[in-house]
Predict the structure.
Amino acid sequence: MRKPVLTIFYQFDPWNSSIGGIQTVVRNFIKFAPPEFQVRLVGILASAKGELEQWQLRELDGQPVEFFPLFRLADDDKRRLVPTTLRYAMSLWGKDFSSDFMHFHRLEPAIATKTWTGHKTLFVHNDIHQQIKASNAQSILWQRFPQAYFAFERQLISQFDQILSCNSESTRLYQRQYPLLADRISFIRNTFDGDVFYPLSPAERNERRRQQAIQMGLREDTQFLLFAGRLHPQKDPLLLLDAMALVSNPQAHLLIAGNGELRSAMLDRVNQLQLANRVTFLGPLPYQELADLHRLASLFVLTSAYEGLPLVVLEALACGTPIVTTRTGETPLLLHPDCGIVCQARTPIEITQALETVLQNPDQFPASACVQNALPYSAKSVIESVYADMLRQWQPHQASQPAPFPQELGLR
């Protein structure tokens, strides 16, 4: 009896240290796939080496995965004249990756998939309607053409058998917007990998923090504030720098992990605000290194203009690190009062006050409470549940015509 085939579509190279919530979701679906499934990924290559448009048998986190890179692109977290999502969608044109199950993490590729057969799932990672309305006109291209986006969405969304959103408000919005599809639309929890993101004892945490400070040439009692994500208007890291400039605590030092189009503007802002000795840019980091920083940080901070449910918040909580966040996305609904602060206004002053409150009162935000807050979002339990549902759907149809295997397409 053959295995059901799951093909995942997203424009990234999982063997590259690109930071992003969608990348994490895809990695987790590969890592926690049960042996009953054959998993494939249609992505891109970040490296100058390797063949394109050929199936390759690879391994990710100890799991076999069949990988099909469509094109080559370094620095996939930077915007380009032709959006990467559009280039990815057009690269699918004329191909047929029909599978028992197909997971899509952006809507745009669906322009090429209407005739493909199999159960299609769309993951909604942001409240796209709020995203398009966001005041920052440089955030995404669709903000310039909102009516065109909504027409585009109406044309494509009906081909999906299932729509999963990690934001409860976005779930309700889609159900209202598409009442005929309402029974296909549901909420899904985003997840963290508990094998990678876990807490240290208080003594270990303090020693790791002290060693990090010494390594960086900082005073031993330095308190680290951590931001990790794309340097992109959605995350509004310039607002974070403005808030950091107002922090009076001399022990506070901001670590910025990630890359993106705002890096140059952020470096300029650091110079303008005379923050060079209080902010360190780390660039994109591998998962384990990022987890190590979560474990030694005094807090994790997010100043986003809009969000779905940022996985990095769950990862920080799982490491016992409290959160300071703007009131965006699902985070304010899940964050317990003893695990961080939700800023009511997106202003430097309010964010600064929240940062200093957490730094000055660590006992009010204990690591044990943060870890408990994160537990329901464990990737192992959530993703295994999704696969179990898929298997229940597939079993009655297992005698049907097989989906094409990569071997038939030249797997290497």
